[in-house]
Please model this.
Amino acid sequence: MTDSDAGGIEYEPRSVKDIVVEMKDTSELMVDLAYSAVLYRNHEIAKEVLDLEEHMNVLRYHAHMTLMLAGRNPQEAEQLTGIFQIVSAAEKIANAADDIATVLTEDVGLPPELRSALPGAKEMMVRAEVDAESEIEGRTLEDINLETETGVHVVAIKRDTDWIFGPEREEKVLRGDVLFGEGPEAGVEQFYEMATRRSYEKEMMESSEIEGLDRAMAAIVEMKDIGELAVGLAYSSALFENEDIAREVQALEAETDRMKQDLEEWVLESAGHVDDPMQLQGLIHLAISSEVITDAALEIADTVLRDIDLHPVFTEAVKESTEQIVSVKVLGDSELDGRTLGETLVEADTGMFVMAIHRDDDGWVYSPDSDTKVHAGDTLIARGPENGEERLRRMAGAG
Model:
């Protein structure tokens, strides 16, 4: 990708599949980074989101050019309209992530007690630049074994101006690499110190005097989780051509609309009881952006609801993206049969997040938790790293 002398973008031939993969991976990473930046007040991560937004603009241009040139006959052109819709949705997700990061970079207005009001988060995102004398410099991710040592999973590496999404375990960490890791806060601190040789600086917690701020922040986090689930389910519905999953995305979008309205009402009511009402403005921005993400997820699912025949390149793209989306049948007498997701440590042992479970008798269970019991005959819809699929299939007796 290069800029032309006139400051525009030069077209370089690329496959539709490669562009869709990169747009999907980039937009999803942007959402993770943007929320982490705002919720943990990390300006460095917020700036990375803004840089990725510029990268998405280039990808969008290449996607439109490539798609317009790809249709060789009316039938293929019709199939590519669905890819256009998915590309557009990925762009909207990226734009929403950019808007979330802007809340921090432009100081739109957030309560200083924001972090103290956050519900306990399972995982957070961290940005760490590898020091020349770091113990991990020059070693592969497999050799470092960060997930076992710290519980942190490296989701991306920025090397100069290039990005490596979902790096393979054989990827070598180089001096100056910027690693983006996701994991528990205690592990994040250890990971950061290993990479940078500096102590991780945590923001001081301030107790909140704003009545109901904890509930408002819980709603923001829930909208974040719903948005991420909706995007995952939307891609799943399109991949497996499943209308039931697409309908669930539709329901999640409606739930986000309701939550946004409730949060807006809370902000308006609370504005009269704080010294500076503008410090609540950012919460509305977060709610609006969260709604945009679920709206975009519905656009993806809409390809199923309107029975749009997607080009086979979509399936290839999803299978090659950073996070795999898989459908796994649970067999009798397997490790999972008759046990809960928490007992079997599915997420910890495989890295796969179970988004939904289909049961022949009871229909669908969405967003199953650690207490959800799995039975023989259940079909798990999960997303996660490529190497996690094989482990999940073994646990289900299908490996």
Remarks:
- The mean pLDDT is 88.
